[in-house]
Design goal:
about 270 residues, alpha+beta, Nucleoside Triphosphate Pyrophosphohydrolase, 2 domains, 6-stranded mixed beta sheet, binds zinc ion
Length: about 270
């Protein structure tokens, strides 16, 4: 998955740091990222190409990444679609792209205090924005969401969204305020397919910065009859597929892709 960058190590701890000429720059605008044009791999601009107006984001091993705080124009670079970078190398740069996107969204959404409208300031010790007028402290926003592998016997429920992404999907949705993760799983499966579920098994989680998510992968089993009643506003299709019918992926950076793969290979709910 996209966050599996071992042996490299991601360091998110914040400190006020001055950018150095060879540090990498993450520059976003309108959901796109600034990268070198016509390159097969991801090539970021460097601090020496940019100058000032940068905020420290994170490090991967000793490589430091800074966020641009204004729109940049650099010769030989162009703003590229974010999702198309997921399949490019090096893999830890793809992780840097979506993680930088998450941080950038948080910073740009909190330039002004939501309580009183005053311009916020960066705290010098931790990743926090502070309002100098009313004292409001704003910490990074992470939105939990579930990805649900609904199992019936030797079949897995595969969906296709009615809008947007058109590939194979699993039941998914954001946790609402006041819900446990289990509540969200039950509600989303019921809303999208009409099914009841039981026997929850936590699988893995995944930070997915494109929409500020933390995805929580859960497998569960159908409770009762597997009769699907589709929510056609959300889904175009929801079908139970056998292991043989499930798709294979050459490389899939998503938790959804890995959950489909481990079920297909019999590594969960399997006897193989
Ligand atoms: Zn304020």
């Amino acid at each position: 998955m996209i966050q599996d960058i071992s042996p490299k190590k991601y360091h998110v701890d914040y400190s006020k740091m001055d950018p150095q000429p060879a540090d990498k720059v993450l520059a976003f605008t309108d959901g796109k990222i600034l990268l070198k044009s016509d390159e097969k791999d991801i090539v970021f601009p460097e601090v020496k190409d940019v100058g000032s107006c940068l905020t420290y984001a994170f490090s991967i091993d000793d490589e430091k990444f800074f966020l641009a705080t204004q729109k940049l124009t650099i010769k030989g670079f162009e703003y590229c679609d974010l999702r198309s970078q997921m399949y490019k190398g090096p893999e830890y740069y793809a992780f840097a792209v979506i993680t930088g996107m998450h941080l950038n969204t948080w910073y740009t959404d909190n330039v002004y205090c939501g309580r009183c409208g005053t311009k916020t300031e960066h705290d010098s010790k931790e990743r926090m924005l502070r309002c100098p007028n009313c004292g409001n402290q704003i910490f990074p926003k992470i939105c939990p969401a579930v990805i649900v592998g609904v199992v019936h016997g030797d079949k897995l429920l595969v969906t296709r969204y009615a809008h947007g992404y058109n590939g194979n999907a699993l039941v998914a949705g954001f946790c609402e305020i006041g819900e446990t993760v289990e509540d969200t799983v039950r509600r989303e499966v019921k809303e999208e397919t009409g099914l009841n579920v039981k026997n929850f098994r936590y699988y893995k989680s995944q930070p997915w910065g494109i929409v500020s998510d933390l995805l929580i992968g859960v497998f569960c089993e159908v409770d009762g009859e597997p009769n699907i009643s589709l929510d056609d506003k959300e889904l175009a299709e929801a079908v139970f597929k056998t292991r043989e019918e499930l798709p294979t992926f050459d490389y899939n950076p998503s938790l959804t892709g890995e959950m489909i793969t481990v079920f297909k290979e019999g590594k969960v709910y399997g006897t193989r």
